[in-house]
């Protein structure tokens, strides 16, 4: 058995299976505020329908934070973060949990590390750290979102689709990675190591994407019979990776070109819930937002005229749509596009604004960024 001791806080649908799995490899204690649950866990009478979730592995269960802190090197937080009446994340339980941890730490010189598995809002990492801001040696906090489904929690913990760790960049987080990597039954993936905001956001973004996929296939299915479409084959196509895994996940400008806008138009003719129209609206409003950043009458250089770099096709190019929006603001617009051999004067300082829609013009972009009073809008970067 590994010598690192673990304390799991919040023994619900996630926390109890987490404690069950960890207790097979680490000395583990479990904590919950629900006294009746703790009593029945200690008596061995607690029952759960979660497959393979045994409760006998933990050394003991408690409601006492002092006891948990004194028995743990790493504390794994699994308290609930439900939605409140206004649709916001209710952080009451998290707050109570961290207040209790801070209080327990006050009466000991022990240093613990905290791994948060609960689903969080992006700003919560910093907020949780603030509970310990008075401490000389605040415990390190790492955000470790998990992708599990009720009914297969232990299996999902053992076969995670990815492993994400969000921490304070000044401190190493090897201990958090090691916690899971040292368990032989847990599949190891090259971890995604990031800041606390991004780690929390990845969980929300992933689940939002799942809901969009479900809505998409749902919308197709609702129309399938009418259109003579076999929805099961359609689902199978996507399940087998028909969506080209990994493609189109690059942050960048809106989409254009001869295929996507046209095919989305066709899709919209079949469906009427508005999902596809919403996508068109987002695509167009992103161009509007760019145009809104440019002052009227500015002289503008748009880098890229074709619908993407490396092609000589301008059909449905967003560059031309953007030009229309800028002309309405009485701007003067030039294009720079090596694919079309359109190379206006190379002096970027002749412009008020440079808008980058194509990749591959790094030298020009850095020159533009160094030119004072020149507005640079690089659609491939979120950098100011
Ligand atoms: N259930 C899932 O499928 C799932 C999946 C991924 C992530 N999560 C996340 O895991 C977290 C927990 O979810 P859950 O479904 O297990 O919730 P749950 O409601 O089933 O369990 C939460 C447990 O925490 C306990 N608790 C509340 N406040 C406490 C405190 N101050 N100190 C100690 N214990 C406290 C509760 O008594 C309860 O037993 C949430 O953030 C959730 O979003 C859940």
From TrEMBL:
Q: Spell out the molecular function terms from Gene Ontology.
A: NAD binding; oxidoreductase activity, acting on the CH-CH group of donors, NAD or NADP as acceptor; oxidoreductase activity, acting on the CH-OH group of donors, NAD or NADP as acceptor
Location of the UDP-glucose/GDP-mannose dehydrogenase N-terminal domain: 5-171
Q: Which InterPro entries match?
A: 6-PGluconate_DH-like_C_sf, NAD(P)-bd_dom_sf, UDP-Glc/GDP-Man, UDP-Glc/GDP-Man_DH_dimer, UDP-Glc/GDP-Man_DH_N, UDP_ManNAc/GlcNAc_DH
Q: Name one GO biological process term.
A: polysaccharide biosynthetic process
Annotated UDP-glucose/GDP-mannose dehydrogenase dimerisation domain ranges read 197-272
Q: Name one Pfam family in it.
A: UDPG_MGDP_dh_N
**PANTHER family in the cross-refs:** UDP-GLUCOSE 6-DEHYDROGENASE TUAD
Q: Which family does it belong to?
A: Belongs to the UDP-glucose/GDP-mannose dehydrogenase family.
Protein name (database record): UDP-glucose 6-dehydrogenase
